[in-house]
Amino acid sequence: MITRDDVRAMVSEEIGVDPGSFADDDNLVELGMHSLKLMKVAGRWRKLGHQVNYSELVLAPTVEAWAALLGVAETQPIAALPAADDEPEFGLATMQHAYWVGRQSGQSLGGVAAHLYVEFDGADIDVDRLARAVRRVIERHDMLRVAFTDNGTQRILSEAPAQVWSVQDLSGLEPGAVTQALADTREAKSHQFMDVAAGQVVDFSVSVLPDGRHRVHVDVDMLAADAMSYRRILADLADLYVSDADALAPIDYTYRRYLADKARAADRSTIERDRTWWDDRIDTLPDVPALPTIPEAERTDVGRSVRVHHRFDAAQKQRLHDVAFGHGLTPAVVLGGLFCEVLAEWSSSQQLLLNVPLFNREQLHPDVDRVVGDFTNSVLLDVDLTDAHSALSRARRFQHILHTASSHSAYEGLEVLRDIGRHRGSPITPSVVFTSGLGLGELFSDTVTDVFGDPVWILSQGPQVDLDAQVVEIGGGILINWDVRRDALPAGVVETMFARYVDMIENALAPEYDWTATTPAVLPVEQSRRRNQANAGVTAELPARTLHDRFFDLAAIRPERRALRWGEDDSYSYGDLAADALRVAASLTATGVVPGDTVAVVVPKGHRQVVAVLGVLAAGGVYLPVGIDQPVERKAKILERGDVRIAIADDGVELPAPARRLDFSDALRATPAVARATVAPNALAYVLFTSGSTGEPKGVEVSHSAAAATIDAITGHVDLTDDDCLIGLSALEFDLSVFDIFATLGLGGTLACVDASMSRDAHAWSTMIRRFGVTVVNAAPGLITMLADTASADDIARLRVILTGGDRVDAAVARRLRTSVPGLRFIGLGGTTETAIHSTICEVTDESPNWTYVPYGVPMNGVACRVVNSRGEDCPDWVRGEIWIGGRGVAQGYRGDPDRTSDRFVTYEGQRWYRTGDMGRYLPDGTLDFLGRADHQVKIRGYRVELGEIEVAMKRLSGVETAVAAVVGIGTSARLVAAAHGTGLVAEELLEGLSVLLPDYMIPESVDVLDTVPVTGNGKVDRAAILAILRDSTDGTVRNSYVPPGDDVEAALAYLMEQILEVESLGVETDFFEAGGNSIMATIFVAKVRGMLLVPAVTISDVFDARTVRALAARLRTQDRSEQLEQVAGILVDIAGIATGSATELTTQS
Question: Carrier domain spans which residues (predicted)?
Fold first, then answer.
């Protein structure tokens, strides 16, 4: 019977305090009983026969509760376990297998060894004595003589290879040469790939330096030893060096025996319980942190890592201890929670999945703590930092998440990752790891540092990891160390993130820090300065005015100037245009229109629209354009929701009942109004209805001053004058038409009016541009592309400015046009209807980078832009977030929709902002980069997929001019598809090209090559039309559709793969991993291919590289014995033909 005194004694032993210093109801976690010690205690009691586990202990961490638990726990003394088998090879532990697979090429972030490299600087080392100590420590620990076979097993060698020890004598070199030699050694050993197949899992060496100094280098492959074992190796090495003899007590246990004992002692019911717990959550687990990583295909050297580090001294360590336990936390939880905060700030999602290794040696033998091997487990933490909470609340939540997940760690984290990958159809890469060694003692003992010197360099690498963060106790203090793939993140991001982490820790340790306060994230100081500089124009003085007053003033002063041109050579002078507009105004006033009333303009595209719009404004009204080709039902909705007083309509245009109408021809018969109505600059000028995300149109209300501010900012930038002639390509319902009309006529220029018959005829535009001497084109990117594809150099020779926005701007089109017209200014504009046409500006120059798309650019005068995360905080440079736009151009809201208005138009720090729903990022130079719509971020099989990222990748492929990615179907039937338009495109080649640029889960299942690109009435790419094509398409090349075997080798491989994946009719071009395969299954598959097809040379790398049956078959045929392979495959196919399909039966018959 376990008593409270028994519990108290064990607790006292584990946490190192006097048994009488704590009460029965004290929280033991607050006293230092962290998760690793809890696991050890649970293991010790299980060894004594008490069936308790970590989860039960962590739920009530007091002496009283544990005594009660142990008093009722079932007691089953563990029988002595039989010895492990004597086969020369034995299996790999879960983490070992992950490291072994990760060494192979052909997988995301693979081809890198998991190893830990440390350098010690000291003096007066006896090299021969150290050599003897190295030999003895290798003899002592059989895992330092382990070799890993190519079929995923390990075996102990009688002696280690010669490469494990070396001496580099630099004592006679000049200082500069010594420095260079040490740097070269560090670079080589930090990234070396030891030959583990030959048994080289350690590398001990010493560099002899001038003046009796030395540097000891120790590199250990983590296949053979985890971090705790690394500590044991160095401690034993130092003791053996000091004694210069075999003075250590022998170890009566081995790692091989441990694996066997652990397997036999495993509690299958607990493992199954934990597996079910994770399985119930698999649909809701988030992705790994969405940091602004560089795609692997664009990295120059994926195998290199960089290190950033910071040391906190002993006093700061004590302060951390006091602060943590004072709030019921552990130091590891405080640092882990703050690490998650940093990740959340630099992630595009504040929900993230964090991989946390656990050092969990089951206490199966008295000597287990002296054994070298890999004893690590891992646990996945589902961290949600979306909501704003106090630092204390978040830390406690993190602790709860850690304890909860750890209590279900019998089913290991790597198994959960494999299950997620199988569920989603593609392997998941745990690219961010956080490891805490706090509470485990000093990383290097005093003896180690006395013998070898001070640790001056620590670097670890691991496969499939971009950021490996560690916190350990060293030199009486704490070392914070990040090892990061060198090209994983844009320049400067790692250093800025790390500085933020250190700053957060220092703030948390400050006496004045308020743990109960909610503290929002802040931008790094330099980034904040650049951001403020980019947005400085928001305070620029812009005149408050109406849109139309300048036109009427010019018409009075210079009535003879030509205002509008159309047709062959028809035109309107300023005076005649003003007179007709005032006729319309008089007619509207006569019908009862008063200032502020909304008047619909339902007139075909062309010069008469301009007359109508100016007439509405002259009457003091608000114009609301309605396209004459709109469906009747949509027209009715717009007229109703727009609160339209009357519609001015072209003769013959049908209006839905009961709308009041004024025929345009009748309006022109009226006597011109003597004067236009008085309108304040802040009064509404127009209402534009755009497509809503719900499918219902939404009316955007824009004031005169808002639109005028945008126009003045752009005209000032491009130096628009009365000598310019601008062509009006945009539909009146599209806000680019606002600039066309009022920028041109407000400065005395000429507007070339395109009528409805020409609206999609780029040849006709080209003719008009040449005939009328057009100097400025302002249109959506789709129309600019049509123009570039159609117009000759002579047609556009007089162009001086192209303005384009409203959609992504193709940089290749900009380059083509600038080449055709020397001196042409090509300007990309970004913005929304809700922010008065445009808000940002980016001019393409000869010095512009090799963009795929032109960035949004920088905010215009009168505008400020933010990029914010889900918490409304500013995102650091490179981090994806939602674009918010503030300033003079922000619309008043959505007509008749206060709920939507309050949702999208918000106030922050006293300024009104529009939440665009567009996603973007700030670049370090202050440029805003557009990344697509928020609603273009989708989830496919659980993976977060950016459709815009796929489109950018497609645009990088040769010949692709337009690309659209989309999802068809819903739920489990959802499919990722794409369409492309360009020159000489072949769907199969596009898919092959994307496989180099994108991870598997982002590669579309099919690609349709389009002959033409549909565009909307506004000149944008018509995504809805393309989506309809993709839904109906049967002609696209489908990736991973069923393709039957073409010969016996493919049939045999497909059969074996089907048995392992437990699927039927696996196509020979189906991706093994997308079909549910993982590294464990790949290992089993390789073993079956070797045994049943007699192909000893096949390796797991072949499976990762080939991925499909067809590619693997082709690969195997290039090896020796291809004729034998054909024969054996034929026999296997014959057997499979008469078998029931059971892999066991097939194996038996074979």
Answer: 1-74, 1044-1120
